[in-house]
Amino acid sequence: MLEVRDLNVYYGNIHAIHDISFSVSEGEIVTMIGANGAGKSSTLNSLSGVIPYKGSVTFQGKELPVGKPHEIVTAGLVQVPEGRRIFANLSVKENLEMGAFSRKDKANLKNDYEVVYTRFPRLKERLQQVAGTLSGGEQQMLAMGRALMSRPKMLLLDEPSMGLAPLLVKEIFSIIRDINANGTTVLLVEQNANMALSIAHRAYVLETGRIILSGAASELMKSEEVRKAYLGG
Amino acid sequence: MLLQQLINGFTLGFIYALIALGYTMVYGIVRLINFAHGDMLMIGAYTGYFILNALGATPSSLVLSLVVSMMVCAVIGVALERICYKPLRTAPRINILIVAIGASLVIENGGRILPFMGPNPRQYPQLAGSVNQLDVMGQQVIISQQDIIVIVVSIVMMAGLGYIVKFTKIGKAMRAVSHDTRAASLMGINVDRIISFTFAIGSAMAAVAGVLFASKYPQVQTYMGILPGLKAFVAAVLGGIGSIPGAMIGGIILGITEILSKAYISSKMADAVVFGILVLILMVRPTGIMGKSLKEKV
Predict the structure, then answer these.
(1) What parts of chain A have a pLDDT lower than 50?
(2) Under an 8 A CB cutoff, do A70 and B190 touch?
(3) Residues 126-185 of B with CB under 8 A from A
(4) CB contact residues (below 8 A), chain A span 112-171, against chain B
(5) What's the distance, CA A125 to chain centroid?
(6) Any CB–CB contact under 8 A between B189 and chain A?
(7) pLDDT in tens, B12-42
(8) Which residue among A48, A158, B40, B297 sits deepest, i.e. has the most Cβ atoms within 10 Å of its Cβ?
(9) Contacts (Cβ under 8 Å, ≥6 apart) of B125
(10) What is the Cα–Cα distance from B45 to B65, expressed in whole angstroms?
(11) Residue A31: which of A150, A161, A146 has the closest Cα?
(12) How far does B57 lie from chain A, in Å, by closest CA?
């Protein structure tokens, strides 16, 4: 479904991503784990077309444009950004409406709101509330609900566990698994390798802008190297 | 006497508020002080001038001139953004500011060499209207037809803008882009389109202000936008740049201050008082009345 070939990202003179290639098949949860600064967010932002890159990114057989992020959303590839980046000045409902901004099929919208409300009942209780007043966990749910409103074929999740209490992290990850079970492909970027590997089918390990390991998540979980570096021994 | 001055102040304040809205909306979206914004007022006023001259100064041609000048300025505002500002969006902030000042000079002086505008001031066609004399608590108060038109049109425009920003999809998207441009684009919002729309609306508001300003102070010339533009900028800063209600409040406070200084201090000092306010806000409360704490956008 997603094919990335020889992706390179530069920030001025800094070469942040070196020739990485990876793929995600339809229906999968693929995770990319690695330390802070390994290039995980840069990779996702390249896919979403918000930073310039060299290399080829094809989604469902079509090359994705650079610098036109809204077209990538329309194509069905949608990112839930790091730090959630909800619209704090808008109400919860308006945030969800913004998620549906690119939708042309008005007829199904109502039903999709209901789907999001069922998945995140706490959002439904707070529809008129200004989003900035939500707790961290609720903001993460809103960010995910907002992205789901665009009916993505594939969801890019950037550090959904960041700053959340362990219980909430569990809840968020079970929701991710559930979203995937309902037919949305997931590419998940995480520092919390343990949680990420526990729900993913396959995984890539990113280190200073290079992929150093890849394989089935269950295999990587057992790998000595990964356990030492990312799973706390 | 005071009541009369307050009415005059409100009328002028509404005009400033209309201009200030454009400053503040554009700033909210692209963090740019569009110094060519005052010139939209001038273009709007000239558009109205041609229509009123051609069709005669009647209420219906005034309405027509408001509508047409809004359209003309919307198109020019969008073109200005596309040609001058968009290529510099990722450049250092100071570059785009310099371009804005340059664009302003080009428009003002370009107008002077255009045969149908020219360097000489022109008399603005006036609606043959009545002057209403009211008796309020024993005081004689004069409200001209122009004042009533200014106040009514301004309120309609501001209510319309408030509706767009609060309730329509594109207005919500404007607020989303203003809060977090990157996140908005990740949600599928075409940020370029929202920026264009913002320039269109802001310029259309300035066009209305231009027609109203010229019917109240009946003269047009190509530099006419500079001073009201600068004062509206002060109003936007006073209200809190980036805040729409702030621009409305700031505009009205500024209009009243200007008129009261003219009436009670000195007509020559009025502008000094107005710009003194700018200095004072920047020293005491740089975020303005409705402004939030300034967080530098990353």
Answers:
(1) none
(2) yes
(3) 169, 172-173, 175-176, 178-180, 182-185
(4) 146-147, 150
(5) 25
(6) yes
(7) 999 999 999 999 999 999 999 999 999 999 9
(8) B40
(9) B49, B52, B53, B56, B57, B218
(10) 9
(11) A161
(12) 44
End-to-end CA distance of chain B: 51
The DSSP annotation for B166-180 comes to HHSHHHHHHHHHHH-
Residue B179 has pLDDT above 50, yes or no: yes
Model confidence at B132: pLDDT above 90: no
* 8 Å CB contact of B183 and A97: no
Interface test with A, best of B187, B196, B293 (most A CBs within 10 A): B187
pLDDT tens digits along B190-246: 999 999 999 999 999 999 999 999 999 999 999 999 999 999 999 999 999 989 999
Look at A70 and B180 and tell me if their CB atoms are within 8 Å: no
SS3 (DSSP) at B185: helix
| A3-53 residue pLDDT tens | 999 999 999 999 999 999 999 999 999 999 998 889 999 999 999 999 999
Contact A70 B189 (CB under 8 A): yes
